[in-house]
Amino acid sequence: GESVGLHLPTLSVQEGDNSIINCAYSNSASDYFIWYKQESGKGPQFIIDIRSNMDKRQGQRVTVLLNKTVKHLSLQIAATQPGDSAVYFCAETIYNAGGTSYGKLTFGQGTILTVHP
Amino acid sequence: SAVISQKPSRDICQRGTSLTIQCQVDSQVTMMFWYRQQPGQSLTLIATANQGSEATYESGFVIDKFPISRPNLTFSTLTVSNMSPEDSSIYLCSAGGQGNQPQHFGDGTRLSIL
Predict the structure, then answer these.
(1) What is the DSSP string of B78-104?
(2) Which of B 12-51 lie inside 8 A of A, CB atoms?
(3) Which of A30, A46, A107, B35 is the S-S candidate for A92 at Cβ 3.0 to 4.6 Å?
(4) Confidence of residue A2 (pLDDT cuts 50, 70, 90)
(5) Residue B86 backbone phi and psi in degrees, to 5
(6) How many Å lie between the alpha carbon of B15 and the closest alpha carbon of chain A?
(7) How far apart are alpha carbons A29 and B67 in whole angstroms?
(8) Residue B90 C-alpha from the chain's centroid
(9) What is the pLDDT of residues B34-51, one digit of tens each?
(10) CB contact under 8 A, A103 and B107
(11) How far apart are CA B67 and CA A50, in angstroms?
(12) Do residues A44 and A27 lie in contact, with contact meaning Cβ atoms separated by under 8 Å?
């Protein structure tokens, strides 16, 4: 079946560095992508999302890039802090025909980000 | 964004018993979902909880094992039936998906079966 995968299961960076977490997806019909952060003992927390009609979206210290040609998604975290240490998941889904709602998410395997002080 | 509360947060259960997990959302939502996350792994969708009708189950998950209720637009339950050690996992509830709103998650129920 369709799946979302990650290139790097673990990433270790120094505080202050920029982090890049990658994700490959296989369903070319997917048109909405979400990045989640999951800290130990917590549920996934929404970070940022992007629709397929965009290539880039920026938030506070985070940027998501979407390359539909090669079905690749990345999350960039600027000036990474120890509080950013967590597992990061990408997820994909498809909007309904009217573009008003979407349903189930397919999650990637996750990347463990460790930030060293 | 919706705030999602799950109860219990964790439990240890005996083999062969059943446990019902509750999920409460602080606002009305059209769509609610139940996921399973096995230790050290990603999230897998169990089912979509439909208000007023039977849940829609994903491949590999059946109603007899994971009965779901959705009595209204703010509440859902998932029961894990006739539990075995293989059911030890984190069970997560999510809500959302309407318009441009992302799905938000509860903190999960950590279930261990002895």
Answers:
(1) EEE-S--GGG-EEEEEEE--BTTPPPE
(2) 30-31, 33, 41-45, 48
(3) A30
(4) very low
(5) -65, -15
(6) 24
(7) 31
(8) 9
(9) 999 998 889 999 999 988
(10) no
(11) 33
(12) no
**A40 vs B: CB within 8 A:** no
Q: Which helix (H) or strand (E) segment is B46 a member of?
A: strand B43-49
Judged against a pLDDT cut of 50, whether residue B102 lies above it is answered with yes
**Cross-chain CB nearest to A101 (options B30, B41, B44):** B30
CB-CB under 8 Å, B98 with A100? yes
Look at residues B90, B63, B94, B56 and name the one whose alpha carbon lies nearest to residue B79.
B63
Q: Tell me, what DSSP letter sits at residue B39?
A: T
A40-89: pLDDT as tens digits: 999 999 999 999 999 999 999 999 999 999 999 999 999 999 999 999 99
Tell me which residue in B99, B104, B108 faces A46 most closely, judged by beta carbons: B104
Which secondary structure element, helix H or strand E, spans residue A106, and what is its range? strand A106-107
Could you tell me which residues are beta bridge partners of residue B34? B47, B93
CA distance A69 to A60: 26
Per-residue pLDDT for A7 more than 80? no
Q: Are B74 and B93 in contact (CB under 8 A)?
A: no
Considering only CB atoms, B45 lies closest to which of A49, A102, A104, namely A104
The first and second tokens of residue B57, run together, are: 């189950």
